[in-house]
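Hey, quick one: can you model this chain's 3D structure?
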Amino acid sequence: MGLDQDIANALFRLLGPGPVSPLPDLAQRLSVSTTVIADLLTRWQIEGLPLAGAGHGSPRLAPGFERLDAERIRAELDPQTRAWHRRLDCDAEVTSTNQVLLDRAREQAIDGHLCLAEHQRAGRGRQRRPWAMPWGAGLCLSLGFRLDPMPMPPACLGIAAGIGAVRAIRRTGLAAAGLKWPNDILFHDRKLGGILVETRMTPSGGGIAVVGIGINVAWPPFLSTFGDPPGDVGQPHIDIRTALGREVSRNALAASVISEVSQVLRAIEDHGFETLRAEWGAYDLVVGRPVRVLSSEGVVTGEARRLDPGGALIVAVGRTLRHFHSGEVSLRLGP
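Sure thing. Here's the predicted structure for all 335 residues.
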């Protein structure tokens, strides 16, 4: 973690709760100039962080902003998951939670490491699509997972993580939340979140996976600042608060998502992907529907049928069954 990241995290912690500190005191405590603090706070406000008192030189988080709390999240994990995740970081802002763990993996083992962020500036989805997340609008979290040896195709890891995330989301009351192959979480065909799995091989022949999960929890009204919410361009979106009509604690949701996804990953490590195929079918929103498959070769239309053992989607195109792999195509619902 660089110096700028350290300062950002330290400043965010000082913004409350607790006694309000004037700008010069904040600068002195962080050993930087007031200009550095003022510039950082100004950028954060432009990016949507709700601050009170900034104009009077005594900034603090606005009432009602629930910051991510590593101790609270860890306390709400089930015991087995808590034992696995020996490192859980809640950063103020990052470029990408996935990238934080991938960078860390160059220097140390990241199995069981978790990275969450209040604000993601340059997150990414599949095929390098941008996935930005304003302050406090959702969950951005990544989990490091050892693949030694590689237990299954990476596509299956993403599907498995989606199963865990949907389990947690349904517990908030959204019983209609489900999965659109390969990595989208939908609610009534509107995008609620997504999964990105990135893998790296190791000299031993195994490797690591970083499982990234983004969930829209309470998208702010000022969408013009960020453009469309994260996800595919032109895809309808929704957040949990809008869908439920009430607030949901991000810390409680984070603990639930981490616990469920961790349980699923342990299950496939021990027993393989086949043990989850029935549950995937219960959450699936694609099979039996007309779809369009977009690839570099053009657009193919057909009817989604099922997953093959490697996590590819089988689509009936006329009288032919074709297998499509997640890294090569995008999927749209409808003819």
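One thing worth noting: Residues 286-333 form a domain with the SH3 type barrels. fold (CATH 2.30.30.100).
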